[in-house]
Recover the amino acids of this structure.
């Protein structure tokens, strides 16, 4: 255990950064090793106990099943790093999904459908960001409101029903694989790599951490807070819409209930992956591991014929345990 | 009685009854011709968000139009898992004191206090689709879900027999949500009828926990992984059947080896039925429940003693019979061809 770690946003904002930043990095790494450790242990246990766990088909299923929530969780990570929250992603996914189904059922080409749906996600994300920054409203309120607006709109657009379309090329994309890896997972990987590079290596990406650490100091240091917030909510919006496209392809129809509750799955994955709802902490790699942990746990318990609800309970318990461990170490550090 | 004559009997009964009810009510209102318009009622399904419930609502709306009734609302909660939401809607409806309520209860026990409250307030209660654990209602129109589950088991066994030569091997099934009256009955009927096929071995039962998105897919995918020699799968609702179909597609299941049978149609499922990736869809008659629900509500409100239980019947659609007129009528309830009624203006 490392002693004397002070890494709350305020403290880092005030103190010279290098030493604390190094410790912060160490800290994050430790939490990630902890997460990775649990994943490895689960993987070994399930490999031995759960028949079929290591089969190529099962690994493919896991890769496919984690893709959509994973994509949402990446967007959520950006928002959480700025000390915000985006509760609208599940509804936006449903909205994007129904837009896709309606477009396809009206014979819009696949390429235009994709462009249209992603543009809608971008617009919603920018609106969220603008209301938060320029309307000076709490992210929780804005995105909670948007959750309701979009779900209602989705039900109205779909006339409360599933929207059927018959475009095999679109549907097959979701069940097909490239190099034996499901297409859905390739999309998750691509989104994760692009977003990870953006977050770690670009100025705008680093600004997200600065804003999440302390808005006022960030502003004084010359960070364009408005543009940063618009960017993170826009990313979250576009990724949620992308998730909607993928889920509609996967289900082969538009479902006005698609994505209900996914916002909480996305937040849970990010938190498991080390993101802090107080801001300034979180990585794409960590979030990816968070999603992977939940997926492996759910799948393994399912194969062992546990009630699927057991996985949910364990996921909840793990979130509390992780954050508790995190806080506890912080307290120890502060006392030392 | 064969299916068609049973259906015609039911229709003529409902229509004649409604006419009689109309006459009675008209009499009460001293000959005024528009008095049926003063019969107010509420029509509450589990959720309007599915083709199934839209068919039920359409039946109710058409009956209301044809009888000239005054509907307070045609509504439901935002999902089939939202029990509290439906209770609130029913309580609000009771407060408006309609002549009758047509209700498809989301949960068998949780809605009982509301149903009894309506009954005690003198509101006639017609329950459709799913049972409630109370006697405080006037008429119950529903699929005999136990018989429907048995039909599903026989359809699955027959599909397995066609593909493998004998109804034998491992099978599994998924439930949309445990504790839902209609689904539990279907599942029990399915299990009861399975006893006639001792060589069909049930190896897994999965509960989607009311999830309408991807859990109905993943539980089937995981079952396919765990039991690679599965010969049959049963899904007890539209959502779980669609989930099973998606899991089959993603796992590249050979539809020549595994049979899939489930409940309730959607355009995607009917396409899959035609292509042979679904082997049977048990069709209920939600339009009939909606139409009959309103008709019997009118009768009960007029003081006619209505039958306590009415079975609206089930049929299994298969790749062989999908184009038969009766199946087509049930697959396209909005077309109402099977009802023999003209489309109301």
């Amino acid at each position: 255990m490392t002693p004397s770690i002070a890494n709350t946003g305020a403290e880092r904002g005030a103190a010279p950064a290098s030493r604390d930043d190094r410790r912060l990095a160490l800290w994050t790494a430790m939490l990630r090793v902890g997460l990775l450790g649990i994943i490895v242990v689960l993987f070994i246990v399930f490999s031995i106990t759960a028949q079929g766990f290591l089969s190529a088909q099962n690994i493919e299923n896991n890769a496919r099943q984690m893709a959509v929530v994973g994509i949402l969780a990446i967007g959520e990570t950006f928002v959480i790093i700025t000390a915000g929250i985006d509760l609208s992603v599940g509804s936006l996914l449903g909205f994007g999904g129904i837009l896709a189904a309606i477009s396809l059922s009206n014979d819009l080409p696949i390429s235009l459908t994709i462009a249209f749906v992603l543009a809608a996600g971008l617009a919603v994300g920018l609106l969220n960001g603008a209301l938060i920054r320029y309307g000076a409203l709490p992210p929780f309120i804005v995105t909670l409101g948007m959750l309701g607006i979009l779900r209602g709109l989705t039900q109205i657009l779909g006339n409360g029903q599933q929207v059927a379309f018959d475009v095999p090329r679109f549907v097959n994309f979701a069940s097909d694989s490239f190099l034996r890896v499901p297409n859905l997972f390739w999309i998750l990987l691509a989104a994760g790599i692009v977003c990870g590079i953006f977050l770690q290596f670009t100025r705008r990406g680093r600004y997200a951490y600065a804003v999440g650490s302390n808005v006022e100091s960030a502003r004084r240091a010359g960070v364009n807070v408005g543009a940063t917030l618009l960017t993170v909510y826009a990313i979250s919006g576009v990724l949620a819409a992308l998730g909607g496209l993928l889920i509609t392809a996967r289900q082969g129809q538009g479902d006005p209930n698609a994505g209900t509750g996914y916002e909480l799955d996305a937040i849970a994955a990010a938190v498991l992956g080390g993101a802090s709802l107080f801001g300034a902490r979180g990585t794409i790699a960590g979030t990816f591991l968070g999603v992977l942990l939940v997926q492996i746990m759910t799948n393994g318990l399912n194969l062992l014929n546990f009630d699927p609800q057991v996985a949910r309970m364990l996921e909840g318990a793990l979130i509390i345990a992780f954050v508790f461990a995190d806080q506890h170490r912080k307290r120890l550090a502060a006392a030392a | 009685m064969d299916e068609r004559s049973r259906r015609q009997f039911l229709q003529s009964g409902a229509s004649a009854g409604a006419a009689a009810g109309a006459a009675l009510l008209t009499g009460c209102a001293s000959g005024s011709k528009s008095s049926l318009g003063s019969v107010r009622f509420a029509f509450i399904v589990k959720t309007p968000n599915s083709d199934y419930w839209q068919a039920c609502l359409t039946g109710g709306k058409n009956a209301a139009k044809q009888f000239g009734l005054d509907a307070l609302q045609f509504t439901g909660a935002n999902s089939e898992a939202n029990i509290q939401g439906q209770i609130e809607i029913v309580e609000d409806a009771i407060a408006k004191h309609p002549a009758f309520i047509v209700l498809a209860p989301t949960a068998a026990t949780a809605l009982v206090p509301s149903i009894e409250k309506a009954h005690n307030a003198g509101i006639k209660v017609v329950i459709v689709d799913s049972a409630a654990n109370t006697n405080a209602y006037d008429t119950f129109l529903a699929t005999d879900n136990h018989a429907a589950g048995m039909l599903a088991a026989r359809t699955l066994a027959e599909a397995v027999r066609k593909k493998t030569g004998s109804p034998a091997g491992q099978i599994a099934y998924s439930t949309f949500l445990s504790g839902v009256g209609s689904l539990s009955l279907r599942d029990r009927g399915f299990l009861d009828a399975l006893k006639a096929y001792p060589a069909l071995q049930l190896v897994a039962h999965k509960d989607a926990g009311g999830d309408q998105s991807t859990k109905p897919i993943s539980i089937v995918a995981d079952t396919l992984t765990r039991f690679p020699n599965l010969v049959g799968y049963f899904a007890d609702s539209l959502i779980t059947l669609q989930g099973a179909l998606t899991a089959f597609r993603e796992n590249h299941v050979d539809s020549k080896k595994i049979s899939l049978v489930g409940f309730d149609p959607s355009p995607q499922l009917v396409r899959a039925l035609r292509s042979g990736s679904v082997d049977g869809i048990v069709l209920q008659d939600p339009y009939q429940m909606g139409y009959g629900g309103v008709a019997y509500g009118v009768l009960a409100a007029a003081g006619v003693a209505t039958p306590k239980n009415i079975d609206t019947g089930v049929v299994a659609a298969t790749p062989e019979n999908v184009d038969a007129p009766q199946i087509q009528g049930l697959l396209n309830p909005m077309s109402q061809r099977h009802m023999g009624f003209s489309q109301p203006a």
In short: The beta strands of chain A are 163-164, 177-178, 181-182, 253-254. Residues 1-15 of chain A have pLDDT under 50 and may be disordered.
